[in-house]
Amino acid sequence: MRIAIFGSGGVGGYFGGRLAEAGEDVRFVARGAHLAAMREHGLRVSSVAGDFVVRPVRASDDPASLGEVDVVLLAVKAWQVADAAAAMRPLLSADTFVVPLQNGIEAPDTLATVLGRARVLGGLCQIIAYVVEPGHVRHAGVAPLVAFGELHAPTSQRAERLCEAFAQARGLRVKIVADVRAAMWEKFLFIAAVSGVGALAWAPVGIIRSQAETRELLVQALKEIHTVARAHDIALAADAVEKTLAFVDTLPADGTVSMQRDFAEGRPSELEAQIGAVVRLGEARGIAVPLHRMIYAALLPLERRARGALDFS
Question: What's the pLDDT tens digit per position in 15-65?
């Protein structure tokens, strides 16, 4: 398949790199020093599942120069989805479809608004990965998984083709999910809770889960998100909170999630797409989410500083 990776950081770099390693025609949309390093030295991936280098790399900051593709895997931050949707138009043929891999649950609807509903699948991934330096991605933990599915049908030929491409790549798991909205909420249950409590506590997951006080915050966050999901008719299992907490207990003790790292490094984060989404969606169904309201209010000054709207030390 002709596959474009739109956003070539930790997530896009890892999954795109594995597809390229397996022989797929992969084209990376990247920018700045990361793009320059990929062009000069290739894409280097350090992984607990095995290191590798993709060289040469077909990469550009101009999507039009990469030509039309069969599928776009969208791996930008959640707050960049709308702009990315507009920018990817030169990659799209009549049959091109888009699979978002963002944290959060609103990307498919944002993409559908810009590109049309027929082009968009739902998707998610599980991985701890980040850019160490330009041209170098590190997969630090979690068995990599990519899952996707049609928003309005159990499966399709296009989803099957993409699944077959991923199945040839080593170092990851792939699956098509019939209820992709529910699958995205399952991921959201985990990522929003850990992101919010982790950013608030400024601590890695091993500390959060081992301290009684922060573990109780995590449980409360999970319960609030679960209640909001069920209020929106999402088919989350009754024991989803317990299963998610058990998964958290398996993670590397020093693990952090991307929103924590963004706050720690003073970058714009996915606060609005994660914690803000819980608050908004709770309001829409009359569900009280006091912990998420508090986390959102506490982190908002840091978010506004990162975006240049506030200035303080």
Answer: 999 999 999 999 999 999 999 999 999 999 999 889 999 999 999 999 999
Domain 2-178 has CATH 3.40.50.720: yes
All structural domains of the chain with their residue ranges: 2-178, 182-306
Do 4 and 90 contact (CB within 8 A), yes or no? Answer: no
Residue 129's closest CA among 258, 249, 223?
258
Q: Are 58 and 27 in contact (CB under 8 A)?
A: yes
* Contacts of 149 by beta carbon, 8 Å cutoff, 6+ apart: 121, 122, 123, 155, 159, 176, 177, 178, 179, 180, 183
Q: How far, in Å, CA of 152 to CA of 179, rounded?
A: 9
How many whole angstroms separate alpha carbon 176 and alpha carbon 121?
11
* DSSP tag of 120: B
> Do 2-178 and 182-306 share a fold?
no
Q: Is 1.10.3210.10 the CATH number for 182-306?
A: no
In Å, how far from its chain's centre is CA 187? 9
Q: What is the CA radius of gyration of the chain?
A: 19
Q: How far apart are CA 190 and CA 37, in angstroms?
A: 33
> Is 268 buried (19+), middle (13-18) or exposed (0-12) by CB count in 10 A?
middle
| 55 vs 28: CA distance, rounded Å | 12
Amino acid at 130: Y
Q: Return the half-sphere exposure (C-beta side, CA atoms, 13 A cut-off) of residue 171.
A: 21
Main-chain phi, psi angles of 97, to 5 degrees: -120, 165
Are 128 and 255 spatial neighbours (Cβ–Cβ below 8 Å)? Answer: yes
Interval 232-281: pLDDT, tens: 999 999 999 999 999 999 988 998 888 999 999 999 999 999 999 999 99
Q: Which residues, 6 or more positions from 239, have their beta carbon under 8 angstroms from its beta carbon?
A: none
